[in-house]
Amino acid sequence: MLFRDRVLQVVSRIPPGRVATYGDVARMAGRARAARAVGTILRTATRRGLPYHRVVAAGGGLGGYGGHAEFKAALLAAEGIVVRKGRIQQFRQHLWPSPGK
DNA sequence: AAACTGACCAACG
DNA sequence: CCGTTGGCCAGTT
Length: 101
Fold this sequence. Notes:
The chain has 5 helices and 4 strands.
């Protein structure tokens, strides 16, 4: 199975209202250090019309959305995630699969 | 086939 | 808290 497909599968399993970081997705997809590649993959995916907006940057930033970060923020907001000053509030708690500590 | 490009990230200064 | 640096890897040119 292509790395791309595993990434898309993993992302599609992120429950609404939760988010995962690029690095986490990379890890779940089997390539712990491929966070960057995940970015390229999701970008092409968006171009295909798949709204993979639940993947955010480590540290609470939004990451990108092919130049449509506003839309991404709106989608997250619709799922109950508060984004302010480009940062996700209570980022740690929305994190999936595990809020960590 | 080789080089370039980024929705990344952690570590420094 | 910002900018830089080096490493990473799939996709695109």
